[in-house]
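Quick one before lunch.
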Amino acid sequence: MSTPAFTEPLYVGRPNIPPLREVEGLLGAAMSRRWLSNDGPLARSLEDALADRLGMAHCAVFSSGTAALVVVLRALDGSGPVVMPAFTFLGTARALDWEGFDLRFADINRADHMLDHRSAVSLASDDAVLLAVDIWGQVWEQGESPSHPPVVVDVAHSLGSSPPSGGRRAGAAALAGSLHATKIVSAGEGGFVATDDPALAARLRSMRNFGFSGADAPSGPGTNAKMSEVNAAFGLASLAHLDEYVAANRANYEAYRSVLDALPGVRLVPVGENSNANCQHVVIEVEPRMREPLVAHLEANNVIARRYFAPGCHRLGISSTVAYCPETDHVAARTVSLPTGTAVSPDAARRVGDLVAGYVTTGGP
Ligand code: T4K
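Model of the T4K complex:
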């Protein structure tokens, strides 16, 4: 067997790591205070910093992005269906199904992999909530569609991105995100919901804390979805470096683009063409017959690529509604996610691009 191109594995989703002394400083203060969870000062500071960054009036942090999504959909009090794209992390569909939500899967646009407005609206009854997704770090915008239900946007991929036109996105009831280890800003595990609605923010805070609205004051339904101060310390230190992480991702995107742009047999999803996108994911499409051998070829060279997001959520057998999502099927059969983030240098990205280009142009297997 020939020598792999990389001596150490390159992963998709390698965490961005803030300086240890910054985490230590925050953690040390929490330890001195002997306050480790339940709406602690670090969690509150993280909420203020996230609200500021997202341009929203309120933010509540959670134990995970999935918990944030579940709680905000409960807090919106929708008894109707949740319409969501078939092409997203299947964990979201699994968790919402587990919680008893009636899911309807809408199709996506082939060009950018984002939720197709028309498909979503065609599935939405008057009592529905629309869960859109900022896939790969792009920003989903509501557009001019007149009859939208309330919109929650899953911003797990897009912290640090803004709409192509600049400014602030309009119209969403809430933005729900993830601070998982694999995200651009990490708390190890964590999530958040940002909203301009003070009543919704109060419900979110109560629901993540067993339904308490104050000490010994039960007020309604709830669970334990709180973020600890340990996670908040890591999240705060990490958030302070968001702009550096975006710059590293963008440099890697440009390195990949210099090799893969306009290459026959490969389509680089043009996430970075919006100069306001964080480029958290670098994704290519190849012919379905090429995908498995290409992933195996990369792996043999210590490049651990991923098949995000295959299969489409409509193929998991969890919706009562039969979903026809041909664009999702088309895309999910072709995508390969490539390593990026601060653990990958632009030079390494270029070399990974060369591996892809060399394999595809020689016709693969
Ligand atoms: N919405 C969207 C659009 C999402 O993508 C996600 C999560 C969510 C919502 C839900 O948010 P959370 O509830 O997770 O906060 C991973 C992540 O676990 C998941 O957070 C993420 N999306 C999804 C895209 O990727 P897996 O099952 O692929 O994880 P795993 O263990 O295979 O790790 C992914 C890669 O990251 C590996 O190649 C290794 C690397 N890695 C991972 C960890 C945890 C590291 O290098 N270091 C690490 O510490 O789901």
